[in-house]
Amino acid sequence: QVHLVQSGAEVKKPGASVKVSCKASGDIISTYYMHWVRQAPGQGLEWMGIIDPPGDGTSYAQKFQGRLTMTRDTSTSTVYMELSSLRSEDTAVYYCARDRGHDNSDDILDVWGQGTMVTVSS
Amino acid sequence: DIQMTQSPSSLSASVGDRVTITCRASQSINSYLNWYQQKPGKAPNLLIYGASNLNSGVPSRFSGSGSGTDFTLTISSLQPEDFATYHCQQSYSTSLTFGGGTKVEIK
To answer: pLDDT tens digit string along A28-44?
Structure first.
């Protein structure tokens, strides 16, 4: 059974960047696609993007194009999400989630990390 | 992007009630519709995928139906642990989108 453990809460100033990690324990995730989803306080879920198993293929939601970078380290079963040029509207809980599909993405998110709160404030 | 609209945004119900939540897509998504349950301060949890398939370990009181643009999540007999927010999500388009969520509260 896989668990996804994310890095701790962050406080950043506007214009800065944040990098959140998500490490798998109990099972490897090297053959799975991984997603990032965020949730602003009191709001719904917002899909950010997906990274393929080798880590050389990504697809981002249009609103994050140019600011979002997803990477992964297959040797440590860790994926990363870096968001730059932060603004107050980026204040949210950021979740990593595993795609249920094995080797092929089916865009069904069956295992989630615990979430990382990112606060953007001057 | 495909827009997903849930209704109602919140509802009050009692233990034992039958509860129905609807989700409408802005275009046909066949059966590429998934439901998640989220409790306060916790990550979402996959309930149903492919509109009607129960995820492993999910109680049989949960069911999903629909295809095309209109979908429903039904809880046949609400239990205390079911008070939560429910989200639908389309997996038809590679740009995934979620509904706004439905909060189920205790009456």
So the answer is: 778 899 999 999 999 99
Q: Supply the DSSP symbol for B77.
A: S
d(CA A40, CA A95) in angstroms, rounded, equals 11
Distances (CA, A) of A3 to A28, A114, B61, B75: 10, 9, 26, 27
Cβ of B46 within 8 Å of Cβ of A100? The answer is yes
Q: Which residue has the tokens 């609209």?
A: B5
Between vectors from CA B92 to CA B6 and to CA B8, what angle results, nearest 5°?
Answer: 5
Residue indicated by tokens 């139906």: B65
Give A46-62 pLDDT, tens digit per residue: 999 999 988 889 999 99
Chain B residues whose beta carbon lies within 8 Å of the beta carbon of residue A61: 95
Q: What DSSP designation does B90 have?
A: E
Nearest CA in chain A to B94: A107
Nearest to B34 among A37, A44, A108 (CB): A108
How many other CB atoms are there within 10 angstroms of residue A120's CB atom? 20
Chain A interface disruption, residue of B21, B91, B97, most A CBs within 10 A: B91
The residues of chain A scoring below 70 in pLDDT are none
Q: Which chain B residue is nearest to residue A106, measuring alpha carbons?
A: B91
